[in-house]
Structures are given as structure tokens and as C-alpha cells.
Design a protein that fits this description.
Number of helices: 7
Strand content: 25-35%
Helix content: 25-40%
Shape: globular
Radius of gyration: 19 Å
Number of strands: 17
Largest sheet: 8 strands, mixed
Length: 287
């Protein structure tokens, strides 16, 4: 498991009964987590003194209760700064477990000792984009949601990366890649974090189980002649990390060699010493 254990502004304090108790800077949140199927005793007093709790509704969706949070605040990871904004669907705009991938991205780009161009697809609020740009890469950040791209720009500005070579693109990822292929544009590294299910701006339906393999095939056509890495993230329940690894081994490795690693991402839990599993990642690396 790749653990994101270098945070100072974020912490999973405890987990129990389908929820996680978290610290985001100075604020304490309780949020649901489908991986937490154990019912251990909640001994930490902060289970009862949180600043906000997201509770699911029996009719679908959910809402924040006892909400003493500001509209936004900031947390830092190393030299990166993220604007946290609790949203209607439990999210905050940051996935802390991705820090393990951010470390990998930065280390790999720096060790390449050459100019590196990165394509970040389904790029959300830009954690991987900031990691790559802070390591000196040029980045193309693509997401279908205009609001998410605007949020990513805010994070870049807060991280002192306003002038970094980042292209901000609001578009359907597949359509954008198809145009890049026609334009003959290529990238040295590709990062993607596709949803389990979604719709594009024109109503295109995305189902990860059906669309991921052909999408990776498509995206492989914008890799440069000397690619550095490819990362695929997945939060789809029941999808093993090895599945993502098999896709990379089937599509990328036959063309470019290198090797593939696949594993879970995890966050350490302070009170129990457990590690909370948080999705799957596959990494193909040129060497």
C-alpha cells in the first residue's frame, strides 16, 4: 500500500461505523466512508465536538449538520496550498490520499532531468497538476466541469504557481484527446482520475467498467516517443488495483517497455494505528 503519511495540515483521527473523524487544519469533520465497515468504540472526544458532520439521507444525498465551518479555508502539503470548500456531496475539494501520487509525480519529474510535458485528465481541483508544475513540468489540465477548473486555478495561485506553464482546459476528456491526436501533440506523462460514472458536457455517458480500457488505448496515442510515466487512479468500489495494472500492462508496456506497479492508496489513522484504504492506483514507469 502507498501511504500518504507526510501530511501536517490533515489527519484521519479515527474511524468507526461507516465514518471517519478528520482534522483539516484546525477544523474537525466527520464524513461517511464506505470502507469503514468496523464498529469500534468511539473513545476520542472529538467524535462529539466536531465542527461539521456530513450525514447521508435515507432518501439519497445528504447534508452537513452542526456546521461551524467558514465558506473556505486553506491546508498545505509541503509547498502546495489547497483551498478547502465543503460541498453538498460530502467532498472538500481535496483527496488527501493522493499525496502519495503527488510525491511520486514530483520525484519522477525531477529525476528525469529534462523538460517534461504532462497531461492531467479528469483533473478536478488540480492536486496532481500542482505537483507536476511545482517540479518544473509544463501541464495541460483538463476537466469537463468549469467550476472545478476555476477552483484548480485558485489552488495554483495560492501555491505561487500562477505563472507556471499550465494550460487550463474545460472539455470532455475523450474529445480533447481526439483533437490532440489530430493536432499531433504529445505528452511525456499522463495522469488520469476517471469517475466510476459520469456525463460529459454534451450528455456523453461514462461507465468506467466499459470505457476505461478503450480510453487508455486512445490516450496512449498522445504519449511522446520517450514517455516518462502514466498514472491511473480509480475509486470504483470492487475494482482491484491489479485490474488497473493489467490495463497498463496490456496497453502501455507492449509499446514502450518499462514496468507497472499497482496498489491501494491509504491514510494512517492516528488513534487506532490502522491504515484506511482509499482507492486504487496503477503506475507505469519508463524504467
Amino acid at each position: 500500500m502507498w501511504k500518504s503519511d507526510k501530511w501536517r495540515d490533515y489527519e484521519v483521527i479515527d474511524t468507526s461505523s461507516g465514518e471517519k473523524l478528520e482534522r483539516w487544519g484546525k477544523y474537525i469533520l466527520v464524513r461517511p466512508d464506505p470502507q469503514v465497515i468496523w464498529n469500534t468504540e468511539k473513545q476520542d472526544r472529538r467524535w462529539n465536538s466536531y465542527d461539521a458532520r456530513y450525514a447521508r439521507s435515507n432518501t439519497g444525498g445528504g447534508a452537513w449538520s452542526k456546521n461551524r465551518l467558514p465558506e473556505r479555508w486553506q491546508v498545505k502539503y509541503d509547498d502546495l496550498t489547497f483551498n478547502v470548500k465543503p460541498m453538498n456531496f460530502k467532498h472538500t475539494g481535496v483527496f488527501p490520499e493522493q499525496a502519495a501520487n503527488w510525491d511520486f509525480i514530483r520525484e519522477t519529474i525531477r529525476e528525469a532531468n529534462r523538460p517534461v510535458s504532462v497531461l492531467n485528465l479528469f483533473a478536478y481541483t488540480g492536486g496532481a497538476t500542482l505537483a507536476a508544475a511545482s517540479a518544473g513540468a509544463s501541464v495541460c489540465h483538463v476537466d469537463a466541469a468549469k467550476g472545478m477548473v476555476a477552483w484548480a486555478k485558485e489552488n495554483a495561485a495560492s501555491s505561487g504557481l500562477s505563472d507556471a506553464p499550465i494550460r487550463w482546459i474545460v472539455d470532455d476528456c475523450a474529445k480533447f484527446v481526439e483533437r490532440e491526436i489530430r493536432r499531433g501533440r504529445t505528452y511525456d506523462a499522463i495522469i488520469m482520475d476517471p469517475p466510476s460514472y459520469g456525463r460529459g458536457p454534451s450528455g456523453e455517458v461514462w461507465k468506467l467498467e466499459e470505457n476505461l480500457y478503450p480510453f487508455v488505448q486512445l490516450v496512449s496515442n498522445v504519449l511522446s516517443s520517450k514517455p516518462l510515466f502514466v498514472i491511473i487512479n480509480s475509486y470504483t468500489t470492487g475494482l482491484a488495483p491489479s485490474v488497473v495494472g493489467c490495463i497498463l500492462d496490456s496497453v502501455i508496456k507492449p509499446r514502450f517497455g518499462g514496468h507497472t506497479e499497482a496498489d491501494e492508496l491509504g491514510l494512517p489513522v492516528t488513534d487506532s494505528g490502522l491504515v484506511l484504504p482509499c482507492g486504487a492506483t496503477g503506475r507505469w514507469l519508463c524504467k
